[in-house]
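About this split. The held-out portion is used to measure sequence recovery: a designer receives only the C-alpha cells and must propose an amino acid at every position. Recovery is the fraction of positions where the proposal matches the reference. Here is one held-out target exactly as it appears in the evaluation file.
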C-alpha cells in the first residue's frame, strides 16, 4: 500500500517532548483523537471503495552499470 503522511498538529509537541519517558496519556486531547480517527477512517473507506487502484510509483528498473572513476572527456 502506498504511504500517506497525516501531519500531526505541533501544538504542545515540542522537540523536548518528542517521544521520551515523559510521554503520557494526560497530554492526549479527546477531540483531536476523535477528529483524527474520523479522517483516517473516511480515507480508508474511500480508498477501499475506489473503482480503480490507488496510483503507484513505477517499479525501479535494473541499475545501469557505470564506472565511478571514469572522467568525462575534456572539450
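Reference sequence for scoring:
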Amino acid at each position: 500500500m502506498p504511504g500517506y503522511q497525516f501531519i500531526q498538529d505541533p501544538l504542545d509537541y515540542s522537540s523536548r517532548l518528542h517521544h521520551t519517558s515523559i510521554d503520557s496519556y494526560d497530554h492526549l486531547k479527546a477531540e483531536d483523537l476523535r477528529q483524527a480517527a474520523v479522517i483516517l477512517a473516511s480515507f480508508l473507506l474511500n480508498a477501499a471503495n475506489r473503482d480503480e487502484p490507488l496510483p503507484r510509483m513505477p517499479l525501479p528498473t535494473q541499475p545501469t552499470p557505470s564506472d565511478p572513476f571514469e572522467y568525462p572527456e575534456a572539450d
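Annotator remark: The CA atoms of residues 16 and 44 lie 32 Å apart.
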